[in-house]
Design goal:
The protein is an all-alpha fold. The chain contains 42 helices and no strands.
């Protein structure tokens, strides 16, 4: 029985709804519209308030755990429900606890709630009361008291509070914003020289883009327009994708008019930096504009001009306009070899997109003749191989992939190309050659993304003749990649192997000869739960804030530690668990993936249970289980699919406009609504796709139809869910596969192949976590073994 078949037959027993919907992810900030040019420079006033923190789900685990009458419960009532009775109770609680930390926390909650609502006098009163008692969160109290003074318009009082804030609270998450805010206040009160001094010698590290923007404003106000222009240029050219770049652009336009011929010309290097950063951010229109300027720069080097002229066409290609790219690049004479190689590659890519394969191949051949050692030629060969693979010309694809790793053995695409040739030989049932190539792949590319596949399929070439010879390869996968797709497949193959001695074959290397170099891809620090003294202090402060449901402040506390150390796994875990507390499961999952990287190579015993639960959550479990079982689908398969599709974000929206937990296109959901037996789901509205229950109703019904269409094949149905029924039918036409894993590995679209493996792997992990033969308190699910 393969992995998918096992998942199909395992249907969970029992149900209880546990975690609830995460709040919507913060909306993306749209680029501001350009305003008309003004005669005088715009002076920024200090901002008065911060944006509201995201609300927690009403059924988030932290809310559910709160006992009535406690500080936590009252704080939740105030911050999440705006409850007047809880506010009155919390005020009484604060009075009873004057002089202790609980009283400080109660006042902090009251003040923070008033501040977020714009009720600054009430906020000041609460913060001033909290300030009377020394506590570990004095910096929070002081900062928000200053912000409340600013909200009331008392700039002098706010400035006094912030004057030495950073010096006294060097490790506070508010040290940087307090310094920047103090500089703003100095500017607004016509103390530009003091603002310049503060920003040039700040007490803590500041964001370069934010500090440079303020320095530009300060120098302008200090009647030093040339110096101002230099700092605005620094923001505009060196931090071109920062939030401050737009404002810097407006200031520079005004300074050009003001200075005339005295305006300092930006250097070629600065202009190149802006163009490259916009290009890297796929801001094609803006990048094209910058490259056009560089291409006509009289003082620029010939290499810069060549590179910029080519990049104009590359930007057009990136923006989806292949015809414009061809018009720009065809016939262009370029002396710089690397620029010319990129030009020819982009021409070839454009012809591929326009479905002109013969012309594409001619360009690739030309690229190989002119620039045979360029990385662009390596990319062109790989691209051509991909074209033939998707077109089902497997022999043609293998030919180009072989050229990649033969001509670029150390190239970035060598390992993947080698694997695809090896896989082609296996599909041809040229097992001796496939075996040789699988072994060669393991020896030459031990860090390859295809290493687990190579080990598995090497074992499969040996298994028909000698199951015992295959066993070491399967055991290696189980030990080294226990929860990878092929680790799970290998576990099942091992369970079916007969107990017979291994054959001695001098033609085949001993597995130990080369498998020993393959190590489990797990960073040691991910399993190290030790905290430094400073991290422990930060964690304690976060826990204190969490105890009063000041979750967004607790998150900010931990983020401050992570900004200083991006590999701080311990604080990253804490951050993920805080997001679970307020029911933002998609955000928690993002943090979990970041700070517990390589977790699929962990054994379940390597991580605490709560870590696995944040990596594999089960929100809306009752609804999920009911909808899945109504369609005779394993609910853990649905969980695995949702985890891959939306990471449990009910308001997720893809580039193709797929919506909700199961990422359904509106047209697909509308089609399901006409057939679904669920009366509630019959009436389709677009907004219903963001409602978990209805989204899962449509998604599970659609998945059931796909299973029926593909004769119960889970692999084929999941592939169709991602790539569409027609494509899967095309891939199956005339093909034979000895096992489902062979079909999965043969999927020509990398995204779909990895998607199918991920969904099945996720589902298997859900089974291991929640159907492990023990009672599971959170889900109420019991293992079938106990039935």
């Amino acid at each position: 029985m393969n992995l998918a078949a096992l998942l199909l037959c395992l249907l969970a027993i029992g149900s209880s709804e546990i975690w609830a919907a995460p709040v919507p992810a913060t909306a993306q900030v749209s680029k501001p519209k350009k305003s008309p040019r003004k005669a005088a420079p715009k002076r920024r006033k200090p901002s008065k308030a911060v944006s509201k923190a995201p609300k927690a789900s009403r059924e988030a685990s932290g809310i559910q755990a709160a006992r009535p009458g406690t500080l936590l419960a009252m704080a939740i009532g105030v911050l999440e429900k705006n409850s007047l009775s809880d506010q009155q109770a919390l005020e009484a609680f604060a009075q009873r606890h004057r002089g202790d930390v609980d009283g400080v926390l109660a006042h902090m909650v009251l003040g923070y709630h008033a501040y977020l609502g714009g009720h600054y006098p009430e906020a000041k009163k609460a913060f001033e009361a909290a300030r009377l008692v020394p506590s570990p969160i004095q910096d929070y109290v002081g900062y928000y008291l200053a912000m409340s003074e600013l909200g009331e318009g008392d700039h002098d009082a706010a400035s006094k509070l912030l004057d030495d804030f950073a010096e006294k609270n060097h490790s506070s998450p508010f040290a940087e914003p307090a310094t920047l805010k103090q500089a703003e206040l100095l500017l607004s009160s016509d103390h530009a020289a003091e603002a310049i001094a503060l920003l040039l010698s700040p007490p803590v590290s500041l964001s370069e883009s934010a500090a440079s923007l303020l320095l530009g404003e300060a120098y302008h106000k200090d009647h030093q327009p040339v110096k101002a222009a230099e700092f605005f240029q620094k923001v505009y050219y060196l931090y071109s994708t920062s939030p401050q770049a737009y404002h810097a652009e407006q200031e520079l336009r005004q300074l050009r008019q003001e200075l005339g011929e005295s305006y300092p010309a930006p250097s070629e290097e600065m202009r190149k930096t802006r163009a490259e950063r916009l290009f890297a951010a796929s801001q094609w229109k803006e990048a094209e504009s910058e490259y056009r300027g560089l291409a006509t720069l009289a003082s620029g080097s010939s290499g810069t001009r060549d590179h910029s002229r080519v990049r104009i066409g590359v930007c057009q290609y990136g923006a989806g306009n292949s015809q414009a790219a061809l018009a720009t690049l065809n016939g262009m004479e370029v002396s710089d070899p690397e620029a010319d190689a990129e030009r020819i590659y982009t021409i070839a890519a454009s012809y591929r997109r326009l479905d002109q394969p013969q012309t594409m191949q001619e360009q690739v051949q030309l690229l190989g003749q002119k620039h045979p050692e360029s990385s662009w030629y390596e990319k062109a060969l790989f691209m051509t191989g991909n074209h033939f693979l998707v077109s089902q010309d497997l022999a043609g694809a293998a030919q180009y992939y072989a050229m990649v790793y033969e001509q670029f053995p150390q190239g970035q695409l060598a390992a993947e190309s080698h694997w695809r040739v090896a896989w082609r030989r296996y599909r041809e049932r040229n097992l001796p050659e496939a075996r040789r190539l699988f072994e060669e792949h393991i020896r030459n590319y031990p860090s390859s993304q295809q290493i687990s596949a190579s080990i598995y399929w090497l074992g499969r070439t040996l298994e028909p003749e000698s199951p015992a010879d295959a066993a070491p390869y399967y055991r290696k996968l189980v030990q080294t990649f226990p929860n990878y797709y092929y680790g799970l497949e290998a576990r099942q193959r091992l369970a079916k192997l007969p107990k017979v001695p291994a054959k001695v074959d001098s033609a085949t290397s001993s597995p130990e000869d080369f498998l020993g170099q393959i190590r489990r891809p797990v960073p040691d620090s991910a399993l190290d739960g030790k905290l430094s003294a400073s991290d422990q202090e930060r964690r304690n402060r976060a826990k204190l804030l969490e105890s009063a449901w000041l979750i967004d402040l607790a998150v900010g506390e931990l983020r401050a530690g992570i900004i200083k150390d991006s590999f701080n796994f311990s604080l990253g875990r804490e951050l993920a668990h805080l997001e679970v507390e307020r029911g933002r499961y998609n955000v928690a999952l993002e943090y979990g993936k970041r700070f517990l990287g390589g977790y699929f190579a962990f054994d379940l015993s390597d991580l605490p249970r709560e870590d696995w639960e944040l990596l594999f959550p089960l929100p809306w479990w009752g609804q999920m289980k009911q909808k899945a079982e109504a369609m005779q689908i394993d609910p853990y398969l649905v969980a695995g699919l949702i985890r891959q599709e939306s990471e449990f974000n009910p308001e997720a929206r893809s580039r193709s406009n797929a919506l909700g937990l199961m990422q359904l296109l509106p047209a697909t959901a509308r089609r399901m609504a006409k057939q679904i037996p669920d009366d509630q789901a019959r009436s389709f509205r677009l907004a219903s796709l963001t409602l978990p229950e209805l989204n899962m109703a449509y998604g599970t019904f659609y998945l059931r139809l796909l299973l029926k269409q593909f004769n119960g094949s889970l692999e084929e149905a999941v592939a169709a869910y991602n790539a569409g029924e027609n494509r899967v039918a095309e891939w199956l036409q005339g093909a034979t596969f000895e096992e489902p894993a062979e079909f999965v590995e043969s999927i020509p679209f990398t995204e779909t192949r990895e998607y199918v493996q991920a969904v099945l792997r996720n589902a298997a992990l859900y089974h291991k976590l929640y159907l492990d033969g023990q009672e599971t308190e959170k889900t109420g699910v019991r293992s079938q073994k106990s039935e």
